[in-house]
Amino acid sequence: MLDISDLSVSYGTIRAVRGISFTVGKGELVSLLGANGAGKSSTIKCIAGALKASGGSITLEGRDITAASPEQVVRAGLATVPETRDVFPDLTVAENLMLGAYIHRRDQAGNRENLDRLHTLFPRLAERSHQPAGTLSGGEQQMLVIARALMSRPTVLLLDEPSLGLAPAIVERIFEMIETLKKSGLTILLVEQNVNQALAVADRAYVMRLGAIVTSGTADEIRATSDLSAHYLGG
Ligand SMILES: Nc1ncnc2c1ncn2[C@@H]1O[C@H](COP(=O)(O)OP(=O)(O)OP(=O)(O)O)[C@@H](O)[C@H]1O
């Protein structure tokens, strides 16, 4: 489904991602793990078309999207939830959601149907449809940005640190929702610092350190073989 081959990303002379390769199969939930500064967000931004690759290739369902713009990437079927969790604070929840559907703006019936499905998945957003998004709690804003990404009807969803800065009870809810999305058949690439939670939902994981992939395997293999504290806590 998603095939990353020898991908490099640089900021001037800083090489943030150094020739990494990994795959995410159809319907799989793959996690990209690593300490601060390992290069996870740079990888996600590059796949999303927000950063230019300095080498390598990105293929989605056999189609080369390495040089695609963010909009072209969304049109190809890949939606991204960045770690910045940006909502438009003065727009209502409903208006924020409709912005996620801009590539389908002529298909109003399809958008309504998708919105109904998302309201079932995120009842809190349905209750707060007419409320300015800036008045939502942090956890609700995270739900909103995930739902907004799903309004583009992606086949692959990239989630960058969805649990960042949220209370443990809310983190539980976010991970339950990620599991529900996986069960619905969505292909997911999940970047997380929350290693235990990520491995609990992931089929496979890749561990990044200093811009390179140092370990990969099933969630059980990663738990069993790698020294998590060394990779994640920088020890
Ligand atoms: N805009 C930028 N300009 C220069 N260097 C950058 C920029 N963004 C990231 N970097 C550098 O690239 C490297 C990888 O950063 P990146 O944000 O991809 O890591 P990360 O694994 O996502 O970490 P975090 O979890 O803290 O976001 C770091 O050394 C970082 O300082």
Task: Report on this structure.
It contains ten helices and ten strands. By secondary structure, the chain is an alpha/beta fold. The chain has a domain at 2-86 and 155-232: P-loop containing nucleotide triphosphate hydrolases (Rossmann fold, 3-Layer(aba) Sandwich), CATH 3.40.50. A hairpin with a 2-residue loop joins strand 1 and strand 2. Helix 3 runs parallel beside helix 6. The longest helix has 16 residues, at 168-183. It is globular. The mean pLDDT is 92. Bound molecules: adenosine-5'-triphosphate.
Map the helices and strands.
Layout: E1 2-11, E2 14-24, E3 29-33, H1 40-47, E4 55-60, E5 63-64, H2 70-76, E6 78-81, H3 93-99, H4 108-121, H5 123-127, H6 138-150, E7 156-160, H7 168-183, E8 187-192, H8 195-201, E9 204-209, E10 212-218, H9 219-225, H10 228-232
Parallel strand pairs: 3-8, 3-9, 6-7, 7-8
Antiparallel strand pairs: 1-2, 1-4, 4-5, 9-10
Residues 11, 14, 16, 34, 36-42 line the site of adenosine-5'-triphosphate.
Features:
235 residues, alpha/beta, Rossmann fold, six-stranded mixed β-sheet
Quick structural summary:
This protein is α/β, with parallel strands linked by helices and 235 residues long. It has 10 helices and 10 strands.
